[in-house]
């Protein structure tokens, strides 16, 4: 694996291998007083975030440090970007300074792909940590890892993705990955929060939440991304919550085994009730924990797996 830019780049075997590696890393670290592996010693990972982030940025930093990499954080406000430097020049500067991997979040869709193109001759790997409204592949991988832990194999499972699909890179990445792993996906949203061309995603779409709940094995609530909205996409927060919020009554409509996910940050009381978010049915903190192990697996496959395979062949 050269880069991780999109879940469309992963077939079922590649995705399963990443998830299996994450599970093995999690088991390896379980119960350790010092959670440290020497796998990426001598490697440098740079996180370059042009948008605010807590979960993704912290988990990539923890993942790199748990694997003994040198992790450097770059923010737009504290770098030459604030002086007008282009994304391309910033990326080339980081590569020239010795970055083995650049983890990038950017408000422009396609930014990670452009970065990978510019760094194609430098040997620097690129991980897409969210580009505009396009994709967020490691979020989809950690969601799949969480569902595998809770439900077992994903083939044949039905997952509802609910809410602001229009602005959600999480939704796009999950639709691709979950279908690749054999799950069925249904999108539930008001018509105003569905993207143009959603028919091309080849998944069913519903405008009503309640009829879908009894048949779901998992429900993924999406954050309403007000910062990307210009104009009225729904009448009010209260009306949105009444129609699409996951409350205790709706939780009881789900099958007993069904899992509740949310990529965060949560708008409690609007998208999801606090009683639901904090219930045993919710796997929201488990998603965050699995995010570290999934991102460890991604860094391993980008920076170490090839070298280990080479050493094994030379030994044989």
From TrEMBL:
InterPro entries: Asp/Orn_carbamoyltranf_P-bd (IPR006132), Asp/Orn_carbamoylTrfase (IPR006130), Asp/Orn_carbamoylTrfase_sf (IPR036901), Asp_carbamoyltransf (IPR002082), Asp_carbamoyltransf_Asp/Orn-bd (IPR006131). Residues 2-149 form the Aspartate/ornithine carbamoyltransferase carbamoyl-P binding domain. Residues 156-302 form the Aspartate/ornithine carbamoyltransferase Asp/Orn-binding domain. GO terms for cellular component: cytosol. PROSITE patterns: CARBAMOYLTRANSFERASE. Keywords: Pyrimidine biosynthesis, Transferase. Carbamoyl phosphate binds at residues 55-56, 105, 136, 139, 264-265. It catalyses: carbamoyl phosphate + L-aspartate = N-carbamoyl-L-aspartate + phosphate + H(+). Its EC number is 2.1.3.2. Pathway: Pyrimidine metabolism; UMP biosynthesis via de novo pathway; (S)-dihydroorotate from bicarbonate: step 2/3. GO terms for biological process: 'de novo' pyrimidine nucleobase biosynthetic process; 'de novo' UMP biosynthetic process; amino acid metabolic process. GO terms for molecular function: amino acid binding; aspartate carbamoyltransferase activity. L-aspartate binds at residues 83, 169, 223. Heterododecamer (2C3:3R2) of six catalytic PyrB chains organized as two trimers (C3), and six regulatory PyrI chains organized as three dimers (R2). Catalyzes the condensation of carbamoyl phosphate and aspartate to form carbamoyl aspartate and inorganic phosphate, the committed step in the de novo pyrimidine nucleotide biosynthesis pathway. Belongs to the aspartate/ornithine carbamoyltransferase superfamily. ATCase family. This is Aspartate carbamoyltransferase. It comes from Streptoalloteichus hindustanus. The lineage of its organism: Bacteria, Bacillati, Actinomycetota, Actinomycetes, Pseudonocardiales.
């Amino acid at each position: 694996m050269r880069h991780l830019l999109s879940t469309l780049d992963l077939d079922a075997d590649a995705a399963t291998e990443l998830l299996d590696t994450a599970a093995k890393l999690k088991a390896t670290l379980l119960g350790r007083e010092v959670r440290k592996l020497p796998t990426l010693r001598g490697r440098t990972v740079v996180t370059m975030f042009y948008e605010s982030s807590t979960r993704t940025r912290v988990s990539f930093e923890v993942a790199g440090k748990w694997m003994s990499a040198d992790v450097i954080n770059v923010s737009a406000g504290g770098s030459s970007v604030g002086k007008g430097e282009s994304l391309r020049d910033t990326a080339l500067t980081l590569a020239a300074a010795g970055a083995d991997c650049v983890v990038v979040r950017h408000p422009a869709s396609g930014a990670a792909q452009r970065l990978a193109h510019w760094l194609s001759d430098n040997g620097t790997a690129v991980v897409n940590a969210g580009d505009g409204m396009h994709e967020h592949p490691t979020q989809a991988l950690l969601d799949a890892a969480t569902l595998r832990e809770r439900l077992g194999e994903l083939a044949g499972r039905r997952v509802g993705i609910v809410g602001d699909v229009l602005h959600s890179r999480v939704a796009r990445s999950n639709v691709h990955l979950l279908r690749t792993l054999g799950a069925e996906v249904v999108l539930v949203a008001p018509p105003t929060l569905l993207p143009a061309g959603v028919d091309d995603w080849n998944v069913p779409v519903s405008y009503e939440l309640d009829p879908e709940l009894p048949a779901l094995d998992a429900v993924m609530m999406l954050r309403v991304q007000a910062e990307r909205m210009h104009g009225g996409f729904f009448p009010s927060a209260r009306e949105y919550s009444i129609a699409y919020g996951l409350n205790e009554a709706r939780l009881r409509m789900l099958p007993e085994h069904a899992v509740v996910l949310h990529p965060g940050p949560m708008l409690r009381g609007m998208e999801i009730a606090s009683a639901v978010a904090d219930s045993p049915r919710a796997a929201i903190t488990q998603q965050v924990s699995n995010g570290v192990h999934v991102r460890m697996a991604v860094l391993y496959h980008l920076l170490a797996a090839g070298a280990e395979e080479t050493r094994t062949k030379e030994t044989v």
